[in-house]
Structures are given as C-alpha cells and as structure tokens.
Amino acid sequence: MKKYFALATGIFMLISATAQDNSTKKKEGKPVRVFNSGKTINARTPEVTGKGKMDFNVSHNFGDLAGSNGGIKRFFGLDNAADIRIGFHIGVGKHTDLVIARDKGASLVQQIYEIGIKQQLMQQMENDPSRPMSIAVYFNNAISAVKKNNFPDQDNSFENLGDRTSNVLQLILAKRFGNVSLQLNPTYLTRGHAISNDQKNLFALGGAVKLPLVANRLNLVVDYFKVFRNQASKDSFSVNNNLKFFNPLGIGFEVLTSGHIFRLNFTNATEILENRFIPRTITSWDKGQFRWGFTISRTFTLWR
C-alpha cells in the first residue's frame, strides 16, 4: 500500500514542479478552488465546506440504462432506484468537514450509516510556489443496519457489530492547470466481513479530471478507480458466483447556478459509497450496464 501512496504523491509533485513558474515578480497568491464541490462523480475532492457552513447533498443512482436489465422495458433504468445517499457535510473548522450520511445501498448490504472526517492539509494558491496543489485526507466509518442474513457466507451474514462496519482512508491530491483540474485518489478500504475467498482489505487508485465546456456554467467531469484485487479472488468469483469485477468509471456534466450545483452522472458503479463500489462493481460499460445518476448540492450557513 505504501508504494502506491508514494507513487501517487511523486507523480503529482513532478507535475507541479514542471508546471511551476519561477518568476519572482508576482503578486501575493489567492486560494484556488480546484473543483466546485466535495465530489466529482465517485471520487471525493479536496474541497471543504468552510467553517460554519453545511453542504446538503442528495445523490441518486438509477438502474441500468441499457443491456439485459435496461432499455425501454425499464424506461432506461429510471424505473429503478438503485442507490440513494443523503449527506450533511458540516464545516466544523476552516479546513475540516464532518460528514454524516444515510445510504440506501444497492446489494445485500443496505441501510448504511456513514460518519466521516475530511481534513484539508494544503490549498493551492495562485503565484505561491510553496502551495502548488491542494491536498486532503478523508476517513469514514460505515455501518450497515440491515437485518442479518441467516444463510451462511453472504455479504450480510453478520455475526457482530464489527462485521457490519467498513472503513475508507483516502488521500486526495489535486491541482488546477489554467481551467483544467486533475486529481489522484489513493484509497485503502478495510471491511469487517467478507465472503469466502474475497478480500477484506483492498487498495484502489482513483483519478479525476474537470474540463470546462461553458465558462462558469457547465463542466465535464470524469473519474476512474483502478481496484487492485488478487487473482485468487477474481477466479473464485468467476467460477463459483459467475461474477466478474470491473473498475468504476464515471462521466458527468456539472451545471453551476447561483444557488446550487447540479450534476448529471453516468457510471457503471451501482453503489455510491467507496465502501461498496470499490469491492462490488460487477457491471460493465461495454454491456450497457451503466446508469443515470444525479447529485444536487446546496450550501447553507449555520453560524458565523
């Protein structure tokens, strides 16, 4: 795991160094907002809400748009609410967010409660070589409240509270080059329970990009997670469960208004939480197994 984190950090530091203008005749820098919200599609960004503010957002994934479970017979997936997340992101400090959320879940592990902390370690500044990028860390704990499955060796065959929990630790490295934003998300996932021949601990390397389409109005956002799963796990699921794992890919359009941010998403990840889509993305873009989704975000002031 350490070598992946080191590799991700090294790549971004190299990009930052080569893009740096060493001119000394520059004005004092201003903070750079690399992304417009706390998430792209599946990937979290280094942006925080701000002290005394709350970002309320609702994310919704529908069913398959095409393929055997999509098409016109299921109104291109709109007949099915695959996963829904309602989140409260509260700025308890200038660079610290407390996250409280409820996630429906799209598989046997449902009724998920999430609590998390995002800490912004550095914010990119204009014309400041000492702050060439934005860096944040995110940690969460997710607990499923779904009823225990009495059948053995299922995703929800829980024996105790520890079996119901999972944790994600994510390093977020982001930089804006002009109007283009790039990001890396080295992510480590650990679960209290996994079925036979599956992995309790997984590493994934995520990435995201934001491209402007209409200035200050419309952006294209893309993110991707490469999940490093051992071959024994892949082979076991292929033979015993007739399942194949895929890496989550998301493509979306971000609409900016004066009051809120709206994102229209397309992704092969059925579930919204990293705790679930990293170990359990079993649908593929090339089979039409991708889905509509949207996120609505609105920020409120709680105290000044």
Give the SSE string. Answer: HEEEEEEEEEHEEHE
- The helix tally amounts to 3
Strand element count: 12
User: Mind telling me which CATH architecture this is?
Assistant: Beta Barrel
Query: What general form does the structure show?
Result: globular
What is the averaged pLDDT score?
87
Report strand order across the widest sheet: 1-2-3-4-5-6-7-8-9-10-11-12
Task: Report the sheet-strand fraction.
Answer: 35-45%
> The biggest beta sheet, please?
12 strands, antiparallel, barrel
Radius of gyration, Cα only, in angstroms?
A: 20 Å
- Low-pLDDT residue spans: 14-26
Number of separate domains: 1
CATH-defined fold name? Porin
Molecular structure report:
- With 304 residues, this protein is mostly beta strands.
- The chain has a single domain, classed as Porin (Beta Barrel).
- Helix content is 11%, strand content 43%.
- The protein contains 3 helices and 12 strands, in the order H-E-E-E-E-E-E-E-E-E-H-E-E-H-E.
- It has helices at 2-19, 231-240, 274-277; strands at 53-64, 81-93, 96-103, 112-122, 134-144, 165-177, 180-191, 201-214, 218-228, 249-256, 260-267, 291-301.
- Strand 3 (96-103) and strand 4 (112-122) form a beta hairpin.
- The chain is globular, with a radius of gyration of 20 Å.
- The relative contact order is 0.20.
- Residues 14-26 have low confidence and may be disordered.
